[in-house]
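Weekly puzzle thread! Below is a chain. First person to post its structure in token form gets bragging rights.
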Amino acid sequence: MLFGVTGGIGSGKTAVCACLKVKNIPIIEADPLARELTQTVPEIRDELVATFGQDLFSACGDLNKEELAKLVFSDVAAREQINRIIHPHVLNAIREQAEEFRLQGNQLVGVE
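Winning reply:
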């Protein structure tokens, strides 16, 4: 069974997940996964650059988190577009990781 741990900033998600990990329940962390995919999946990079320009990435190809944050926190339409670009890849990666955990015999897998 795949389940989500949700809540606002400071609501205790990390503490709950720490308790679950102690019980050997694997947790897939969506935010770090999204950051990793944004750096490593060419389709995400290409679509972000095509939509928002090369300024989202440094000359050596690293994600410019400052520029991304400006877009995400100042422009609702841009945030929605970024989510449309990134979220399908994140969901696929979560499904793949959850399936790997299931194949390892885990009956419960959490997503934070």
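Puzzle host: Confirmed. Bonus trivia for everyone else. The chain is about 60% helix and 5% strand.
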